[in-house]
# Entry
Amino acid sequence: MTQEINIAMLGARGVGKTSLLTAIYEQFPDTIGKTNLQLTPDLESSALLQENLGKLKSLLDDFEAKGGIENTEKERSFIFDLGKKGAKPSVRLKFTDFPGGYLNSQATANNHKFVNDLLQKTSVVLITIDTPALMERDSKWHEAINRPQQVADLFARVYTDIKSPKLVIFVPVRCESYLKDANSANILLKNVKEKYSRLLNLLSSAPLLPLVVSVVTPVQTVGNVVFSSVKEIEGQPHFYFRKTSHDAKYSPKDSDQPLRYILRFMLKLQIEDKDRNWGFYSPIRIWLGWDNYLKQAAMQAALSCKTTEGFTVIQGDKWLNID
# Structure
C-alpha cells in the first residue's frame, strides 16, 4: 500500500517553484538516490518537469526571470513515488501549488477554502522565496512579490489549535549570487529572518512552538548563474541573470536539502511514542515499519541535512533529532 504525504507550496507565480521541483527530481540520482532510492514522477508531472528542464538547460547567456504574483489557471499537483529501485514504491509525495490569485483581493470564497484546507491537511509547507526581490535595493520588491505579511496572515488563520507536528521550510531560490561565501550566506539568512519576522514570531508563539519546525534551506535552482540587474517596467520588476561563463551548464546545488529535511521529519514522527494519536501520521509509522529498507535508506539520506552557511533550523530541533 502506497501512503501519501501532502506538501503545500507557497510562493509567487514565476518565482521558481517548478524549477525547484525540477532540480529536486533531476539531481535526485546523484544525491539521495545514491542510497538506492528511486523518485518517480507520474506521467503528467514527468512531462511538465521535462519541459522545464529543457528550458533551464537551454538558457541564454542573459535571461530574465520576471517577479510578481499573477493570475493563473488552476491549482496543480506534482506527484512523485518514492521507494527502492526496481521495487514497488511505498510512499507518494504530493506537492500542491495554487494560483497566486487565490490570495489576492479578488479571490473567491472557494479559493480561500482551498488554501485553508490545503494547509490544514498538509504536514509540510514549502515557502518559496524570490531571493533577488528579498535582497536587492533594500528589499524594495519583497512585499509586492513574496507577500510575507499575507503569508503570515494565512498561517495565523490556519495554524490554530493544531494537534500534530508541522514542518515549515523557507526555500530561497535564484540565490546563487548570495551564497558566494559564508559571510554572504549569513547575510541572506539574516534577511530571511528579518523579513519574515512576523511569521516566525507566530510560529514561535507558546501554542505553536512545541509542534512547529521551521528551517531555512536555500536552493540554487540553476547554478552557474549570477544576478545581473533589475529593471522596472510599468511598475513591475524584471530581474536579469547571466551565466558565469559562455559554456556554463545547468548545475543546481542543494536541491536535495528540502527533501532530506522532509524525510528526517517523517522519520522522527515514526520514532516517537506509537501511542500518540496524530491522525494523519499513524499511516506513516506503519509504512516505515513495513519497509525496513526504506526506513534505513531514508535515515541515511536524512543525516546529510545542512545546518551552516545559510542553512539553519530556526526552531523545532526535537522533531528532527533521529540520532
In short: The first strand starts at residue 3 and ends at 10. Residues 3-319 form a domain with the Rossmann fold fold (CATH 3.40.50.300). The chain is about 35% helix and 25% strand.
